[in-house]
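Suppose you are handed a protein chain with no further information: no name, no annotation, nothing but its sequence. What can you learn? This example shows the usual starting point.
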Amino acid sequence: MPSDAARLIGQLDPDTTVLLTVECQRGVVGPDSALPELADAARMSGALANVARLVAAAHDAGVQVLHAVAERRPDGRGASHNARLFKAAERLPVQQLSGSTAVRIADPIPVSDADLVVRRLHGLSPIAGTDVDALLRNFGCRTLVVTGVSANVAIPNAVFDAVNLGYTAVVPADAIAGVPADYTPAMIRHTLALVATVTTTDDVLTTWRRPERATPAPHDTPAPS
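A reasonable first move is to predict its three-dimensional structure. Written in structure tokens, the prediction is:
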């Protein structure tokens, strides 16, 4: 049976791995969040900082990054209304309006020109009903690394959808957050661990920094076609 390190090496090949950040936007995890308790949990737990570390490492390793953002039109068209959560969101003092600063990726997460931002106007999942699945297939993705918020709703939705679509889901447990604080580890242990590879930010970073991931020496570099 392969060790945890060997399993991660096999799963996190940069050529077939995509890193997904979920709702890591200013209006959710930033200082002017519509959900200050969740924003505090993301920052105080270190999850937001770990997402930033993972994104930076993904850029260095050549791993594609997708940022999943939840937003709504100012007129509310296309928004979901079939759950208490949606109705509560409509009354929040900060709205995730398309084009506003609230839907920009929050600091300290770096965003490169190669990153893609996938925006959704409806539903609970960053994958179902969005362009994410088609993009993953076009990238040749086999493993999806899921990070961000919240451990209460969007993160488990993303993991379940990824698994149902045939991807291997990897969850760095210290790069997701929810409320209350003690809910996240319980949800990981009793739910996500059943369907995903649960790991840590440091273990992912170590895998992407392995010597065989380094740029080939000049004499090994293939000649341009």
